[in-house]
Prior knowledge:
With about 290 residues, this protein is α/β, with parallel strands linked by helices. The protein is built from ten helices and 14 strands. A hairpin with a 2-residue loop joins strand 1 and strand 2 (about 15-20). The protein starts with a strand and ends with a helix.
Amino acid sequence: MKIFPLKVWIAGAVILFPCVLTAGPLLGPWKDAEFALPAVLSQRDNGAWSSVDYREERDINERDAIKERRVKKGWVSLDPRRKQKSARLRTGAGYLRYFAVGKSKGASTVTVYLHGRGGSREQGVDDWSFGGNFNRIKNLMFRNGGLYLCPDVTDFGEKSAIQIRELLAKTMEGNPGADLFVACGSAGGRVGYLLAKDEVIAGQLSGLLLLGSVPDAGFLHSAAVSLKVPVYIGHGSADRVVPIEVMENFYRSIRGSSSGYPVKMVRFETGSHGTPIRMTDWRMVLNWMKQN
């Protein structure tokens, strides 16, 4: 396989990531300028770790029509609602309710969002909250022949893992060869780690995103890590729920688990617990993962 550098431009800075070409098509652009990361303040580890200039005044107050509740209209498109449906799956651990947006069969990319405590499947399809960033991932999947799934996370443990394993099994049967990404908000990461330890899921997994999430030492011995599944960590430096130092240490442990492990961390300076959900550049991260 051909190894080449992926160049990512962020506010005038160029970040290079060593990448391996894979079969999955890259995601085409949609509102890239609006959702690009703020300026890079510092980098290390050949660009794998970055600190970016997050500011509440600019990134919330100037972006939202109603602060933290409704983004301005120019940030969203409601076109994906034409391909959005609510569904229910009977699993070995009870019924699972979820939303599906996009192409249900023959999708090239499948992205799953696992919400944290206090959330629900509605969070991940809310077009207006978190600065419109959920609307962006819906549009990226809708416009690129992909599928976006938002299931309820019922117990953040084995019950949810069983339910979502079965949802993924059903989904991948209809979308063989699709790139599969699991994005975890906050405590949703606990379920993401259980999925990563499953050899079948890990063999299909193209990337794990941790958005203001939690660490798991057992992840280092998972099937996903043995397969070098790419990991993205987005975290706010002022997170009061999961201190930034905890995730910095987790990033270093993953990076040190094997030579050249594809892990990336973005530290949002002054950002809080929900900042990575608002600010993560979905297209940049998923395309980086597709090429690793």
